[in-house]
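Review box. Two proteins, two foldings.
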Amino acid sequence: MQITKDQMSPTNVKLTIKADEAALAAAKQVVLMQLAKNIKVQGFRTGKAPMSVVEKNVDQQTLQSEFLDTMVNQLYVEAVTKEGLRPVNRPDVSITKFVPFNTLEITAEVEVIGAITLPDYKKIRLAKPVVKVDAKDVDEVMTNLSTRAAVKKDVTRAAQLDDEVTIDFKGVDTKTKASIAGADGSEYPLVLGSKSFIPGFEEELIGLKSDGEKTFDITFPKDYGTVDLQNKKVTFTVTIKKIQELAKPKLDDAFAATVGPFKTLAELKGDVKKQLQADREQQANRDYESELLGQIAEKTKANIPPVLVEEEIDRAEADERQNLVYRGQTWEEHLEADGVTAEEHREKQRPAAEARVTAGLVLGEVAELEKITVSNEEIDVRMQLLSGQYQDQAMQAELSKPEARRDITSRMLTEKTIEKLVGYASAK
């Protein structure tokens, strides 16, 4: 096999591949043997006729078509492997020369992952965050537990701190007065002072009576969970439907016993602290890994195929559309509220998409350099653990699919690679 590689761009390669006669002859025999299984030749049992006889009796157009399909695929795969290319989509293949069964030349143009130059990631240091849980954190959880267990009593007085109010509310864009999906609700229970709503919202309701209405402006935090509402100024109109005073239970050993298998309040507090510590450490580790990978990706020089970035943007927008469905907002309404066209919205996604693609490529390069692998035994153990966690038949069926095993393998490889990077970054 002769290969000529033309680098059309940093991420586009054109291969000209010429097959040798031995490979062509072998491929022809393979195709004839496959076709012979369904050909009846007088004087021979099906599949037992000599290949020379089969060739004379087979439809020549079918023979050539099957031969070309087999040979083109074989040539392309072998050439990509030999050249060390990493294609990201299907190739554009053309047959440039073909003399039946003794001469074949093809061209294949394909997008590939270009050169990737990693920084010296082994020298990057990043201190691990120290996670602490203090008495105030535990007390907040205890307060929430007692609030949930409180006895509610309807009152006619004005709403006070620690009361639970049932409200109807509607939010509109302060500038355009357009309705905002996800910024309205009805019969919504809210404990004043719980800090469970938008900062500044609960305080506005103190002093209102049942059937009282109030309109006020709130600016959403810059780190608010819904991206569309970050830093957005919203005008809310709120109606108080009901006010209830909460008679919270005393925080003592008897209360602890109602929450779980605890004999004393101290045991309950100890368990709360342990859970808070575990949750915060888990989140801190995720944030640490993300920051570390981001630092390495930022220092990496990578030729990224445009198709990978476009696919990543497609995935991000698909997730965004799904979230809009839950919030009862159409894509067009979302774009209008954001003040952008579909094209402008897509371009806003590009930097983050490029960063995610680069991070993925970094992990792949590091895994290869560090010779990180996942054994079949390790995969089997993980699959067994997952099977034990998910007992419903639908999930069991999903886990039994080959693609599920491939997905789990990929995740485990990522986990091992990140663990290796964390080991370098946190070393003293």
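Next protein.
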Amino acid sequence: MQPFDLTLDDLRAAAARIAAHARVTPVLRSDALDAATGATLHFKAEHLQRGGAFKLRGALNAVWALDAATAARGVVTHSSGNHGNALALAARSRGIPAHVIVPEGAVRTKVAAIEVAGATVHRCAPTLAAREAAATAVQASTGATLVHPYADPFVIAGQGTAALELLAQAPDLDALVVPIGGGGLAAGSAIAAHALRPRMDVHAAEPEGAADAWLSMQRGERVTDVVPDTICDGLRAAIGAPNFALLRRHGVEVLPVSDAETLAAMRRLWAALKQVVEPSSATVLAAVLRHRQRFAGRRVGLILSGGNVDLDAIAFCARCGAAG
């Protein structure tokens, strides 16, 4: 299966494959946030997913799609946190080994979660080249299957089940906003949205300090030389080649947001929803707040991608008190 060939049937197959292991997460509402944006907001609470992020969906789909002999050799990935934790949990659900390449400087709580989930952690330099080289080395020595964080078709299909679920829970949405890093969630969400509601607007919220997806869409070619500088650790990955192609095919609009806007939105989410979400999740509300005119009067779905926060490193209370 190629990412370009993914259809609604693939997403529905993924939903069936992961049903025994993934949670059906709730949709949250807030009158206060509706009033602040002038829109009717439906928050898909993927921070309440097992492992604290939507990433489990793609990892489960990829792991359970493997034949028995291949699965027995284990799986490997490179990840700054949430995907690594998700793959570790997915592998544990099937009783197979998992190896996760973690770059130096990754959020401590996310690395700890990967270890607790039972994966073998391999450290590397904080560059994409180092991550890929380490993953290749582990593959060679173990025979493990690479489960790419966002460019794997089974990962994309699995991640798309979050939007598929949201559209069943809130079927009358006019627009969808999801965070974007490597683009797995955005691509899968666009496939789901346009299969069920062809005229739906799909938007991807991206940190200004890691705006490779925005630049790629503006230039019509994939940009990979952006050096990320953002508090959103889950959105620092460069957009994948198949993901970029799918975003172009589906006309996804990328909306950059600043870290200050993201932290202010994170504060609003904590206060209004009484939920712990990480900065990457808050980009979606930041995008709606920044572009109120685009969303005013509309029914908008927003995917809260994760809630794995390093509580010892929270700075938004001091930095964004006035902005909240």
